Amino acid sequence: MMKLEIKNASLGYHRTMILQNVNMELHTGETICVLGRNGSGKTTLFRTLLGLLPLQSGEILLDGRNLSSWNRTQFARKVAYVPQARSLPFPFTVMDVVLFGRTSHLKPFASPGKEDKAIAEWCLDKLNIIHLRKRVFTQLSGGEQQMVIVARALAQQPSFLVMDEPTSSLDFGNQIKIIRQVNELKDESLGILMATHSPDHAFMCDAKVAVVQEQKVMVQGDCKEVITEELLKEIYGADIRIHALTHNAILSRKICIPEI
Questions:
Q1: CA-CA 20 to 30 A from 84: which of 62, 101, 151, 192?
Q2: How far is CA 91 from CA 96, 105, 169, in A?
């Protein structure tokens, strides 16, 4: 089991502090959903965790080693990123986009080989989008593009997957597909850190939760214990009721219903 850890960290841009005294642990085989309003610092947290923004203070550890001791290639073999934005400047095919995920496994100036292409096809097949492999990425729907970006991240063969609002702008059906894949990947021992605006996603993933608010990670824990009607009122400023949804005698989960 590997661990990605943030310890006593302050995060921000230059002299602007966004989050302070952040402590968080993500293990392989578990999902953490990060909840919070727009502008609360979720993306700053992710960008710092990925090494795209410098830490203001504290440390980030991957497998017990400080982030600064990992070079970018080593890090990319362990941690993959699924961003919000899906735009690409050139009309690459889906297969080309997924093969970009193999870059960290290639020698300098080397081209993907048979093994890399086989891994890319396996990732596409796993996400049930193998039929798109010859399509032009820019001609796909938003949901299809997002699934391709997830496939690209999987092609890195990482231990951790960082997903910044992966269901944003997707229709309901494609949101369900993404959440289903998150659950399958967790069951296959990936550690997943996912920002979302929907507390229902945390229940659907049976995830741990970290709530970002007022320049800090306000609360962390199991979704069934952490997500309360009072907490949702505090985060979103809306009255939201939580109900138990029973599928059968064994399986049940909670759902959020806003008061209109």
A1: 62
A2: 10, 24, 21
Residue 34, amino acid: V
Query: Which amino acid appears at position 117 of this protein?
Result: K
Query: What distances in angstroms separate CA 63 from CA 6, 24, 66, 110, 181, one per listed residue?
Result: 12, 14, 8, 28, 25
Element (H, E) at 72: helix 72-76
pTM to 2 decimals?
0.91
Q: pLDDT tens digits, residue range 204-249?
A: 999 999 999 988 998 999 999 999 999 999 999 999 999 887 766 5
Enter the tokens of residue 105: 């496994």
How far is 38 from 194, CA to CA, in rounded Å?
15
Amino acid occupying residue 94: V
Q: What is the DSSP letter of 93?
A: B
